[in-house]
Each structure stands twice: as structure tokens, then as C-alpha cells.
Request: fold
Amino acid sequence: MKRTQRILAYAALAVVALSTLAVGTAAYFVTEETSRSVITTGMVHLALVDENGDGAPWPEDGLMDVMPATEVARVVCVENRGNAAFFARVRVEVAIHPAAGEPLDAACIRPVINTGHWAEQDGFYYYRRALAPGERTEPLFTRVRFAPEMGNAYMNAKAELHVLAQAVQCAHNGENPLEAVGWPEAAHTAEHDDP
Reply:
């Protein structure tokens, strides 16, 4: 019996060796290929243009000694500096800081809005069409009016016009900026709510 067991053991070893040799020598046809695709997204980038009437940037220190019943030249528009068309909107807030006394009515100081190219909705002025890369909007306003009703309480007061411009892509966003989606949340342009 021992001899039979030995023969069976040798036979089993021979089968294992042959199967290992068969697996080790088998060849398979294989191929592979890779591809790399680069996709660059477009960029929506706006510049808020804020100039005096001569095309120079609005003075950092503002204007001094403005009187009631006058207008000052100030040009505000938006420029598309990205590579994708966008819709633009602008919010303008006036804050008046009195020299002394009670808060003053900011309605006495108003930009003269260009309603031919801009439409008002929800506190913003929307440019009526898409702005292509490199284009500049028609000015939202070119002058600021100081009402004749400004009395002595406005003497030495400091008036500030805060301007906020926003843009949203127009691709796949409809034809009308008033109905476009994706606008950033509305923000106050003034540093604080109280004048």
C-alpha cells in the first residue's frame, strides 16, 4: 500500500507541476491606450468703471463744496474683461453723513439714470442686453443731481454714492437679464445701513 500511496503522491505532484507550467507559459494578446482631454471653462469677469466727466478715474477723495441745485459729472458703467458674455446689473445707494444733528434725506442726491439702456427691478438696474467680451455698457448715469430743496441742515454734510456691480453668465441663461438666474445674493453697497 505504501507503494500505491507513493505513486499517487508522485502523480499528484506531476499534475500540479504540469498545470503550473501550462499557466506560466500561456500568453494573452493585450493592448491599451490612454487619452487626455483638457477642457478650460470660460471666465465671467467685470470691471466697474467709475470716472469723472473727463474720462479720468473718480477722485479718491471725492468732490468738495458742492452746492444745492447743481449737478456734478460722474460716469458709471460696466466693462466685460472676461472671455464669456454676461448680463450685468448695478445697485446704487446714497448715504449722507450730517455734520451735526438729525439724519438727512438721501433722496436729495440722485444719479440721473439712463433708463433707455438700463431697467430697474428689485433695487438693481439691469443692462438690457448681454455684454460681449471686451464690450462696455452704456453709462448707467453720467451726472449726479443735488436738489434745490437741500437746506442749511445739509451744510458740511458728507454724501457718498456706493455702487455695486454684478454679472452672471448669459450662456444657457435665457435672453432677458431680468429673468436670468444665478445672480449673487443682493448685498448692501454701503459699509453700514445707518447714514
